[in-house]
Specification:
This protein is α+β, with helices and mostly antiparallel strands and 811 residues long. Helices cover 23% and strands 30% of the residues. The strands form 9 sheets. It has a 9-stranded mixed sheet with strand order 18-17-16-19-20-26-25-24-22. The protein has a 5-stranded mixed sheet with strand order 5-4-3-6-7.
């Protein structure tokens, strides 16, 4: 704002005296003019005094002073959005795209606002997208940048011009940034020292007609029929009453699932849910494709997008990744006796390709005292005759339990019974099942090992019911009791008194998908009602805090409820307690029920092994926005005892997935494969954590990428491998929102001290911009006597006074 100052104050009081003297003389003269009316005297006197005051103001040198941006000393940065999102046809602009509107604003025909800026400031022009590009002018502006990283490019400008006088940033964009959604995504440090930002919002509304995939969520479940659930949120604008179809394509381009929806409103958001059962393990890629159904009968003509009507086709496709794990996962079943439960459990897991079952079944308990039996001088147990042992002395004696190993990987596995060393348990098994086996079977060290297996290793533990389980097996006051989700002490009755205990899901159990076997509630209730009554149940005192009571056994006599299935997290792993001891009755009831029982077993095991970590793990995480879309590729290596390993060499090979790009990994890499060369990353050890090796890779290229980490020991042999992958879908980020983001632009302007400028008001804003000041300012002053209108006005006042007096004959 300006101010008024007096340049010659020494003339102030003489001018005041002169005006006073003139007033006295005028009063005496006008009093003598009797013919003049009072109103004419006041008018004539006022005009004369006004003219005299104007001359006195020129005499005292009255000046108008204002502080404004110094000409040519400050910088103004002009940023234009060059992303492909500017190719969207604006809802209020008819056939024009936002890019065409922006070109008109930047063109010379739109006005001389850029010339006005150059007359007052040093102007720097930039086009931003994925990077910040300096340009001499905007004549060749093309909207081909894949994304618009507004936050990162603004931060780059702030760092680049941190010590230079920047008066403001003129930002021309639709406000749809790919690295931020709202100003809340920026921390306070982003706005510290930032110049004022003046956004010019390009576009006014969303397109009238468009189909777009808004979001995709992939989740792993323990459903054996469909272990992968894909939720696809779509937005339908202008397709009310038309059949919209979503297809899911595999890596070969084949349709694996498709669904149809008819929007009922002009603008409607709908969620497609697809459940898949991939036919192989590892990292898999799919593509969701959205379109409308055609009228043809052929497969190719049933699904096609309407390019002429849609605002853009870039948001009709979305790549997604599914990590099914390397598997197979191993389960160790430890049983105190051969029983029906093992038979059905083994049959159930045999139908799951992702699970391998190994069993350790005791067929005879150890005897506390040595007794001679059989032939004279024989000390070995005759149960071992016929097993092909050459040395009878190697047969198990009577003071050791007789264990049968089933489905082991080799002859040495479990040769000494249940593992006693971490390397024999951690690296070979993912889930342990204990069935009808007393606590005294395990040594204290083995129980501690089991506790570490779950809490530190992240494995799963399932304890089944039986006459030698839970309290009946003496597990109270043992390390295993601390792991279980139920209390075993002070149990009034060890077994259930009823002969038929009805199995029911609790409210929390109904919310667990792995515990339900039907998609609909009605079918699930019918299944539960048809289940047989159980007769063997291990009672517990209560469930522990934090545990989940998933199912109960209800007495047919008095309705008393006893916990039947209870689960909880224990450290890094999971523990599940099934107190029912005759689960096999479910399969004995009828042939029709046996598949349900087997499916229940499989889903329990899947829940237990869902989060079990591997000895070698490869993870890929997206970096921060300021990192320039870098991806962090991290490999975690552990030895057989699940301890971090540092003395290894980690090599990560990355290749793009797609037709002609080598979408299958082989054991050996020979440079170029399938027309695409694999990129090899040499992972470096982390300085912060042992056993972690990391590297970065650019996430700026669109596509699907599969990575394999190979761990080699000191001898150069491969010790283990892990796979992962990622999808870079920049179009999904760019077209996440189609309407201009006015909220983000307003918040950005407010937080930096700027304001949002309309396209129509841009030229006027630029003309007034110097008056807003800047880092470098100058003071401009203009004397009043430099303005000709002052003297003309004074002369007019004197002439008007003379005319009034002449009118009444007093001149």
């Amino acid at each position: 704002m300006g101010s008024v100052t007096i340049g010659s104050p020494e003339w102030l009081w003489p001018c005041v005296g002169l005006v006073g003297l003139v007033l006295i003389l005028m009063w005496r003269r006008y009093r003598a003019a009797a013919r003049m009316p009072a109103g004419a005297k006041v008018l004539a006197g006022g005009l004369k005094v006004a003219g005299l005051i104007l001359l006195c103001l020129c005499l005292v040198d009255l000046q108008w002073r204002e502080e404004r941006a110094a000409t040519g000393e400050n910088l103004v940065l002009v940023m234009a959005d060059g992303s492909r999102g500017m190719g969207i046809a604006d809802g209020s602009a008819g056939e024009k795209t936002r890019g065409e509107i922006l070109k008109e604003v930047l063109g010379r025909s739109a006005g001389d606002w850029q010339e006005s800026l150059e007359g007052e400031y040093q102007v720097r022009r930039y086009v931003f997208g994925q990077r910040l590009e300096g340009v001499a002018d905007f004549e060749g502006l093309e909207f081909d940048r894949p994304v618009s990283d507004l936050g990162r490019t603004l931060n780059l400008l702030k760092e680049r011009y941190g010590n230079r006088p920047v008066a403001g940033v003129v930002l021309l964009s639709d406000g749809n940034a790919t690295d931020v959604e709202s100003a809340a995504d920026w921390d306070e440090a982003f706005f510290e020292g930032a110049p004022p930002v003046y956004p010019v919002l390009i576009g006014e509304g969303a397109p009238e007609r468009d189909l777009g995939i808004v979001d995709v969520l992939v989740s792993e479940t323990v459903f054996e029929d469909a272990p992968v659930t894909v939720d696809v949120d779509v937005m339908c604008r202008g397709y009310a009453g038309e059949a919209v179809e979503l297809r899911l394509l595999d890596e070969a381009g084949e349709t694996v699932e498709k669904q149809e929806h008819v929007p009922g409103e002009a603008e409607e958001r709908h969620r497609f849910r697809m459940r898949l059962k991939p036919g192989k393990r590892g990292v898999l890629f799919y593509e969701a494709v959205l379109g409308v159904k055609g009228e043809g009968e052929a497969e190719e003509s049933e699904f096609e997008a309407v390019a002429a009507d849609e605002a853009t086709l870039e948001n009709n496709r979305r790549m997604l990744m599914v990590d099914r794990g390397e598997g197979p996962y191993r389960v160790l079943y430890v049983s105190g006796r051969p029983n029906w439960e093992y038979k059905f459990f083994r049959r159930a897991l045999a139908a799951d390709d992702e699970v391998e079952l190994t069993a350790l079944v005791r067929v005879a308990k150890r005897e506390p005292k040595f007794e001679w039996r059989g032939r004279s001088g024989e000390s070995s147990n005759p149960l071992f005759r016929g097993f092909g042992r050459d040395d009878p002395e190697e047969d198990t004696s009577y003071d050791k339990p007789v264990l049968v190993r089933l489905d082991t990987q080799d002859g040495a596995e479990l040769e000494d019974g249940f593992p006693s060393a971490p390397e024999d348990l951690y690296s070979k098994f993912d889930v342990i099942v204990i069935d009808d086996l007393e606590a005294s079977f395990f040594t204290h060290a083995q129980m501690e090992l089991l506790s570490d297996f779950v809490s530190r290793r992240g494995g799963g533990l399932l304890m089944l019911g039986g006459q030698e389980s839970y309290q009946l097996g003496g597990y109270d006051d043992t390390p295993l009791a601390a792991m279980l989700p139920v209390y075993l002490d002070r149990v009034s009755a060890a077994g259930a008194a009823d002969r038929d205990m009805r199995f029911e899901l609790t409210r929390e159990g109904w919310l667990e998908p792995w515990l339900r076997l039907r998609d609909e509630e009605t079918g699930e209730r019918e299944r539960l009602e048809g289940m047989p009554g159980f007769r063997a149940l291990n009672r517990v005192r209560a469930i522990k805090p934090g545990a989940s009571l998933l199912a109960t056994a209800v007495s047919a006599e008095d309705g008393a409820m006893v916990p039947a299935v209870v689960g909880q997290r224990f450290g890094e792993g999971r523990v599940l307690a099934v107190t029912v001891g005759d689960w096999w009755r479910w399969g004995f009831r009828s042939e029709e029920m046996r598949p349900d029982m087997e499916k229940a077993w499989r889903q329990m095991v899947r829940w237990l092994m869902a989060d079990v970590p591997s000895l070698v793990e490869l993870t890929v995480e997206r970096g921060r926005a300021e990192d320039g879309r870098q991806l962090s590729v991290e490999t975690r290596v552990r030895d057989d005892a699940f301890e971090p390993m540092d003395n290894v060499l980690v090599e990560v090979k990355v290749a793009e997935v797609g037709e002609g790009k080598g979408n299958e990994y082989e054991d050996e890499y020979e440079g170029e494969r399938g027309g695409h060369e694999a990129v090899v990353l040499d992972a470096e050890p982390s300085d912060e954590e042992a056993g972690v090796f990391g590297d970065t890779v650019s996430g700026a290229k669109e596509g699907a990428f599969r990575a394999v980490a190979s761990v080699r020991g000191e001898d150069g042999e491969v010790m283990g491998e892990a796979g992962s992958g990622w999808v870079v879908d920049l179009a999904a980020e760019e077209y996440r929102r189609l309407e201009p983001n006015e909220e983000l632009m307003s918040a950005l302007a407010e937080r930096t001290g700027g304001e949002v400028i309309s396209v129509e008001g841009l030229e006027e804003f630029v003309r007034s911009m110097p008056e807003r000041g800047g880092p470098v300012t100058e003071v401009r002053s203009e004397p009043l006597w430099h303005r000709p209108w002052v003297f003309l006005l004074a002369l007019g006042c004197f002439a008007g006074e003379w005319g009034v007096r002449r009118r009444w004959g007093a001149a």
